[in-house]
């Protein structure tokens, strides 16, 4: 893959959000997409998702690391990239991905981090990767858009050792065997009276194979490229603070340019 060797800067809000997330064990965020009702009117759709941190800097739990070391040739990718893009995982059979595609991949995410009394709102574009069938048009476009926002932080000579397959597998490894097994469930949202014809699809399975073909066919990593970020700081109730950052293009060195403004809470 081709990535600029320039050491680009992090977004101005990134370290502060990262610090807040590290102070909030088990954090989730609310994801909003655009769906359509029976009359084909656009309607908001919300769900709570587990945030998987910034792509591709996922820190594996010990059992996940053990699985990567044992089952992936050469182990995980070298730690050479970072980004300002947040991640979550999903089942390709759920409604999120069709809703993202039909809306031009528009998404909004919101954290309420009570431990630090701060709300974060992130608006941007979401891309899904992980199609095990190979790089079709959708997968290729997603990888290209994500790649544009990666920053080199390690040795440039290691770029050739980094692969998209290992990046996705690491996110799959981070799930427990039962959570991996959920990607072998019957189709989400269908009536329980409709039993799937595929005997591989049933509840309560445990998947230890990181390359399980049924689970991996349904597994995707969704990566949010932020375009607007807002922080509402409620730590001082008598002087609440609200800051907004909007992506305003690229600097001469290719770094993202963000405009920051403080607004009334």
Q: If you had to describe this structure to a student in words, what would you say it looks like?
A:
- 28% of the residues are buried.
- The model has no long low-confidence stretch (mean pLDDT 93).
- With 265 residues, this protein is an alpha+beta fold.
- The protein has helices at residues 14-22, 62-71, 96-102, 137-148, 164-173, 177-181, 213-218, and strands spanning 28-36, 42-50, 81-82, 86-91, 106-113, 118-129, 151-152, 219-233, 241-250, 256-263.
- The strands form 2 sheets. Strands 1, 2, 4, 5, 6, 8, 9 and 10 form an 8-stranded antiparallel sheet that branches. Strands 3-7 form a two-stranded antiparallel sheet.
- It has one domain (14-263): Electron Transport, Fmn-binding Protein, Chain A (Pnp Oxidase, Chain A, Roll).
Q: Based on DSSP secondary structure assignment, what is the total number of beta strands?
A: 10
Q: Helical element count?
A: 7
Whole-number average pLDDT?
Answer: 93
| N-end to C-end Cα span | 43 Å
Per CATH, which architecture? Roll
Strand content: 25-35%
The CATH H-level homologous superfamily: Electron Transport, Fmn-binding Protein, Chain A
Cα-based radius of gyration, to the nearest Å: 19 Å
Helical content stands at: 10-25%
- The secondary-structure element order is HEEHEEHEEHEHHHEEE
Question: What is the name of the CATH topology?
Answer: Pnp Oxidase, Chain A
Summarize the biggest pleated sheet: 8 strands, antiparallel
Number of domains: 1
CATH class: Mainly Beta
Low-confidence stretches: none
Which structural class should the secondary elements be placed in?
alpha+beta
Shape: globular
């Amino acid at each position: 893959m081709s990535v600029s060797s320039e050491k680009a800067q992090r977004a101005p809000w990134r370290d502060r959000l990262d610090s807040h997330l590290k102070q909030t064990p088990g954090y989730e965020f609310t994801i909003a997409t655009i769906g359509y009702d029976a009359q084909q009117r656009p309607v908001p759709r919300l769900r709570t998702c587990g945030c998987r941190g910034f792509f591709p800097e996922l820190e594996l739990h010990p059992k996940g690391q053990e699985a990567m070391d044992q089952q992936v040739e050469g182990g995980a990718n070298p730690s050479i990239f970072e980004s300002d893009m947040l991640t979550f995982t999903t089942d390709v059979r759920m409604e999120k991905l069709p809703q993202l595609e039909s809306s031009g991949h528009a998404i909004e995410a919101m954290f309420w981090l009570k431990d630090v009394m701060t709300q974060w709102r992130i608006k941007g574009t979401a891309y899904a990767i992980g199609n095990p069938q190979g790089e079709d048009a959708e997968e290729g476009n997603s990888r290209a858009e994500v790649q544009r926002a990666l920053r080199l932080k390690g040795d440039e000579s290691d770029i050739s050792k980094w692969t998209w397959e290992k990046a996705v597998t690491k996110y799959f490894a981070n799930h427990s065997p039962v959570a991996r097994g959920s990607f072998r469930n019957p189709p989400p949202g269908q009536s329980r009276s409709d039993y799937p014809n595929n005997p591989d699809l049933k509840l309560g399975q445990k998947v230890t194979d990181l390359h399980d073909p049924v689970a991996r066919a349904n597994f995707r990593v969704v990566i949010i490229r932020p375009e607007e970020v807002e922080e509402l700081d409620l730590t001082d109730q008598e002087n609440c603070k609200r800051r907004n950052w909007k992506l305003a293009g690229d600097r001469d060195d290719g770094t993202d340019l963000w405009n920051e403004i403080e607004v009334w809470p």
